Amino acid sequence: MSISPRAGKTADPATLVNIPRLITAYYAELPDPAVAGERVQFGTSGHRGSSLERSFNERHILAVSQAICRYRAGQGISGPLFLGIDSHALSEPAAASALEVLAANGVEVMLATNDDYTPTPAVSRAILAYNRGRTAGLADGIVITPSHNPPADGGFKYNPPNGGPAEPAVTGVIEGWANEYLANGLAGVRRMPYGQALRAATTHRFDYLDAYVTDLANVVDMAAVRSAGLSLGVDPLGGASVRYWGAIADRYGFDLTVVSDEVDPTFRFMTVDWDGKIRMDPSSPYAMQRLLGLKDRFDIAFACDTDADRHGIVTRSAGLLPPNHYLAVAISYLFRHRPQWRADAAVGKTVVSSRMIDLVTAQLGRRLHEVPVGFKWFVDGLVSGELGFGGEESAGASFLRLDGSVWTTDKDGIAPTLLAAEITARLGRDPGEVYRELTRQLGEPCYDRVEAPATPAEKAALKKLSPQQVHSTELAGEPIESILTEAPGNGAAIGGLKVIAPSGWFAARPSGTEDIYKIYAESFRGAEHLQRILGEAREIVAGALAPGS
Known about the structure:
It is built from 17 helices and 23 strands. The chain has 549 residues and is of the alpha/beta class. Strand 11 (311-315) and strand 12 (319-320) form a beta hairpin. The chain starts with 18 loop residues before the first helix and ends with a helix. It comes from Geotalea uraniireducens.
């Protein structure tokens, strides 16, 4: 993976997205439904694309919104739809398009008070809170966000009544209907003018910010954080959480500094990611240079991505913690300091997350629930309390309330950052120091993720690999213990494969949006051994994909 010489530096003004051109393209460019890249495509987190590439335009949003209305009607979902947006430039136009369709279909829509940006977890929490105790008239939601993706991107995600990301069985239906509407020139799509939709009797306002911030005291020990008198720093990265932090500080009496409350759809204030592109990724040291430069001013500092469903933890002792490190720390702490959780509550992780989580889970005497990539696999367990925690290596996590009941079933970036403050307050050590102690007890892994080119045909073949297609018997000098194409926790296909040896493993999965596949790898024998695993992983995957293998 080649690192750009611009990585970690402020974006060159010449490379910033042209916002007027982006918005014009949203309305003016017409996607061709016969072109695969211009159709509606739901990945692990909804439909994403850019108006400049005709993959996220007004027609897409009108079609998807009508398909969601059709799905709701078929499922008898008649409660309100909670609608939230982030600060990407395409989010507000998409919200307007969606409201035109939702109102024309008579859907009760809950828009944010003061047209606030709305974090993904605030929408998930609102759905669950409304549906608590109900068996009919259930609510659902839409979050308009491409997460941490570059400024030219847009995203549109449906959350059913369970509050989490919709499962493939649901998104497949919505995607199919949406593409039918596109192919038929939007015939069958109901729509009313935006002004009329705003004034419709079915359009309401909801204070997401107050509801979420007030309820946080039921998830994190805010009193412990306040009593410790910690100095906290936060960088919203120009995203949807920007107004939430001041409200949190005011309500709970924290010494919390928002290092920047700037919102700009070009995100010109960001330092660019590893490849020279702007991404609001709080797990990237390149994107987090602003907060890293301030780390010694605070006892603990943190950031969230643009829709606040991912976290980044910056400590004095270790700087920016890799997501896998913090997940291990959070799990180790939570299951020791949440006495009201079920004694049999398990730990949820994705197959590409660190084995350190497995070791911590075993140390706790808890059950590990390992699932494919995608937060949707944690939803049912979080709702029932069977999972105390669900997390993925891309810095997404959620966990139960203090009393063991469900908090959110979508990723929450805000609660895990405040948990880092609770950990620091109650243990007298920051999460970086806690992780070092875990490595002294359990060993120190090296982890990396790289990308390799793959044709569409190779990506399709990788999704369907069987263990029998892997002919290697060793990985980096150790015998291969197992080859997985299904997740141990639920038996669902992982969309690739995972190869495990005594001291290391790798997993390979095709990208949903680019002609590449991703290799995730880890070694407990050091950096040199990790590089051997990565090199052999490419050879093993190439051999498995070879004709006749």
